Amino acid sequence: MSDDIILVDAQYAFMLGHYQLALKTLQKLKSSSPETEMLSNILTYQVYIAQKKYGVVLDEIPEDTGDAELKILRLMAKYFSGTISEQIATNELDAIVERQVDPNQNLIAIAATMYMNINMLESALKILNNANDTYCNALTIQCLLHMNRCDLAGKAVRRMQTADEDSLPAQLVSALYYLKKGGDQLQEALHIYEELKEKHGPSSLLLNGQAAALMGMNNWVEAEPILQEAIDMGVDETFSLSIRLGMIRGATNMLDAKQFAATKFVLEDRSVLLTTALQERLIRYISGNNVVW
């Protein structure tokens, strides 16, 4: 198996939330070339950040590193660990981005993800305009969905589907778009999540997506055990909305934190399911709208 295939397999494992599998896959790399080593390091630190191992990232990436991608990953670890304020993180990120004359796709995606996590969506879209790969296209769609621009997101989804409908980023972002749209398209989202779960095995991302679609269709009986399975796998309510998939160049897990909050609410009080208005608010909440309980 070539190193290129190994890197893709590791990326896909990470995008699906299979973190240990991603790290295990990276151990199969044979080449010691600087490029391969850099790509492996970037993905490894992304996994550590997703696992909240911020101290490991800060210990292993030197503060004076000359690699822009690693600078941003170190900045992420500092921000998510609460070491620096949002304003300081924003200023440092802006400074790193402004120094890049011709940023590569990895740097663009990592920077855009950081911008999204500090709610600077316009800055994220601005830097994503310089990208043209599948992962960054998926991250652009995720950003548009955060901005409630389903019209633009829908056009971008259709372009991705035309280019490579079977790629994992295209499938994940399509499912996310269908969840956001709701209605008849919830069945499409459910179908994608079920197929991916059958092919790759269950993960909190896929289980939450599957349950969100079922709840959107008012199928609470089937949704509840799936939500419980997601909780048993260790879903974290405080996990950042886009960190898990966005960091791997545009994947699409903006729903996890919201879904888990909704999950606990459903499981703790089944009686709320009898209230139609609350059901509708719950569905909007899962779909990404800012609903205050």
UniProtKB/TrEMBL annotation:
Keywords: Cytoplasm, Cytoplasmic vesicle, ER-Golgi transport, Golgi apparatus, Membrane, Protein transport, Transport. GO terms for molecular function: structural molecule activity. GO terms for cellular component: COPI vesicle coat; Golgi membrane. It is a peripheral membrane protein. It holds the Pfam family Coatomer_E. It is found in: Cytoplasmic vesicle, COPI-coated vesicle membrane; Golgi apparatus membrane. One of its GO terms (biological process) is protein transport. It comes from the Eukaryota. Belongs to the COPE family. The keyword Cytoplasm applies. InterPro entries: Coatomer_esu (IPR006822), TPR-like_helical_dom_sf (IPR011990). This is Coatomer subunit epsilon.
